[in-house]
């Protein structure tokens, strides 16, 4: 168990892990530039990619956490690690490369994400936009930062005045309420990475994000978004189950109310 | 008339205009940071925005061109300048802020765009991603550059292996073939700015872009894209009319063939 009993202790863990991730982000870019990528498909799906760097990054982060807490529990994207069966106690979430398709095809808009939860509640989250070298980190108790800069408190905007980000895949197959949300917003974006979508919310470039997210896609973003005052809820208004996939809306309070109404009507 | 009779003369114009745009990009960011924006709607549409900076930038660029060629003809986004009635001779295209909605709401992903055509053919194009300080410039005769760096020649990729960018507005109202193109590509993106979408093609992060574009949205991107080997055609295979709006597909040759077939079937 890691001592998270005071703001100072939590801040120490934030600083420590932020250092790991910054180093790993630099190494990720260097490795790709020097050695290229070994890419394979997961589950025979040509859109679901994994690379040697996804796997290597996950191992680096797990080893560092285990050195800190030999009994740590994990929920990781890539195979190879036993998955936590409950949210009791402390659970670490790791997405070693979020947006692997972007990493492979676009060489931009991918992220390293980590989060630490205690008894089901987010304590700290980290999302590093690797190509842009921007690390968003912190939580409810420490405040939310972009690199060293504390972020502005959230302004509550309505849908008509907002930019929303949606999962392209769910929009294009006609899943509700993706199309209606996109149409009613001032503008919408499709970016292909949960981590990068979250960074747009933190930077104030967008006010809502709707997608179906796996635990490792959601955990860090939820910790940071809730720390800034965003609502993070399933479309039926319940809290996400952090061990399953959820259709989650991360949005200002006003947009959340509008979408819950949209879904009911 | 500007002398465009040799590669050297064209290169001189490229350098000159690149200098104007770089300066204007810095001023645009400074002005916004210092004085904020005066925003108004065009045609009573809350998504069609114009700011004081759009208007000021257009005037700066027109004045510079008129100092070079007092008889210059223009096709500009903002009101106030007589619009060229034909593509005979030399025509300058100006989009003083492309992605004004992004400029206002997101403070990222907007561009300054210019192009010079002679007798209907693109000679030079400039697209400056203002927040990222990346200027793409050049043409068929000079080569295509990102700032000082010559860009890689185009690799011909097929739809299944490609990232495509589409107009979100046209996708979400069900216009053909936006949805099918998005579904059949490896991934798709919605970015909200023609200029920024073009820069993704030039940087190799995407391989196709489909949208309905006004002349000032298309002119610079067409000059640069054709210079790199992209096909720039209407969905029926004809060449865009540079004085009207066009539903244009900018894509690798393979993707162009696939989409023309998709539209016919």
UniProtKB/TrEMBL annotation, chains A, B:
Q: InterPro entries annotated for this entry?
A: Inositol_monophosphatase-like (IPR000760)
- Binding residue positions for Mg(2+): 77, 95, 97-98, 217
Q: Which UniProt keywords apply?
A: Magnesium, Metal-binding
Q: Which residues form the signal peptide?
A: none
Molecular function terms from GO: inositol monophosphate 1-phosphatase activity; metal ion binding
Q: Which cofactor does it need?
A: Mg(2+)
Question: What Pfam families does this protein map onto?
Answer: Inositol_P
Cite a single GO BP annotation. inositol metabolic process
Q: Which PANTHER family match?
A: INOSITOL MONOPHOSPHATASE, INOSITOL-1-MONOPHOSPHATASE-RELATED
**Name of the protein in its database record:** Myo-inositol-1(Or 4)-monophosphatase
Organism whose genome encodes this protein: Fructobacillus durionis
